[in-house]
Design a protein that fits this description.
about 170 residues; alpha+beta; 6-stranded antiparallel sheet; 5 helices; 6 strands
Length: about 170
């Protein structure tokens, strides 16, 4: 069928005017999805970066080697997805690190608080403790950080047969 000729001087409505009722919600949804994806990407990047840091790794090692904390939470002790806190490095090998990490185990949950300072390339942990779900504070600091980095109290206790083995069994 033939279309009638266009009227001279008449302006045809643009694409937006003809389709705005479905295009506007779709555009808003697309913007929200992009913003959500960017926030998720930033949080995932922060989580990976902070979890890979030396102070975080040492704090988790000490938490998993703590006889008291393993007794309260059970094994395995898992860390939460997103630690909160900050980490700053300065020129000359210095820096600070402050984190709060959610911990969980088969028997309960806890919050791990970490404050670390780096001087001349070495980390010191003046504040490192966990507060269990029952409000009990468990100190994870050691008098000598260099010595604490080499020892795992839980492993030594198991080797001597004084602590439960993984799965709840007692050593001989």
């Amino acid at each position: 069928m033939l279309q009638p000729p266009e009227i001279p001087g008449a302006v045809r409505a643009g694409w937006w005017c003809r389709h705005w009722r479905w295009a506007m919600p779709l555009a808003v949804l697309a913007v929200l999805l992009v913003v959500t994806a960017l926030v998720w990407l930033a949080l995932t990047h922060w989580s990976r970066w902070s979890r890979g840091s030396e102070p975080y790794q040492e704090a988790m090692r000490r938490a998993r080697c703590s006889i008291e904390l393993v007794a309260v939470l059970g094994e395995p002790i898992q860390d939460g997805f997103l630690p909160s806190g900050s980490m700053q490095r300065t020129a000359g090998g210095g820096g600070t690190s402050d984190f709060v990490v959610s911990l969980s185990g088969p028997r309960g949950t806890a919050e791990l608080y970490l404050e670390a300072r780096r001087e001349k390339g070495l980390w010191d942990y003046p504040l490192l403790y966990a507060i269990t779900g029952k409000g009990e504070a468990i100190d994870l600091t050691a008098l000598d950080d260099a010595e604490a980095a080499q020892l795992c109290a839980l492993q030594e206790c198991r080797e001597q047969g004084h602590c439960p083995l993984p799965g709840g069994r007692w050593g001989s």
